[in-house]
Structures are given as C-alpha cells and as structure tokens.
What does this fold into?
Amino acid sequence: MAWRYECGPCGVTTGWLPKEQASAKRDEHRDSDHPGMIPTAEVFESNAKPVAKDPAALRMWAAIAAVCLLAWIIQSMR
It folds into this structure.
C-alpha cells in the first residue's frame, strides 16, 4: 500500500510513497511553503482498495460467512 500527499492551495503532489515518507514530505512542504499554518484542502490518500469496491475480497468474505453458517447449522443439529 502506498500513500500520496497533495496540497490544495498550491497543487504540490508527491508520488506514491510509503506512509512514513509521504508524511515526511507533507511536513517538509508545510514547513517550507506554509510555515506556521496548516493549508486547507490537503489530501493524504492511500491507493488501497476499500473492501466494498474489491469483488474478490467480497467473494472471499461471503465464502467464509457461508462456511461458518454451515458449520453452525451442522453443530446445531447434533
């Protein structure tokens, strides 16, 4: 998973970096270009897909839930 920082007011954007490096670049940019203030409209985002938007992950969780439900039903019948 990688992270990217974008400064809204001046449009500076980092590439996709590990979280620690992207955070350091953000702090460095704030200190050099916006000393003493936090710029508005900053974006600090990750490129990870949310589970809800990843069909493979949803299928996996559905299969796990089905197996658990089946095991519970079998256990209840004994």
In short: The mean pLDDT is 88. The CA atoms of residues 13 and 64 lie 40 Å apart. Strands lie at 3-6, 43-46.
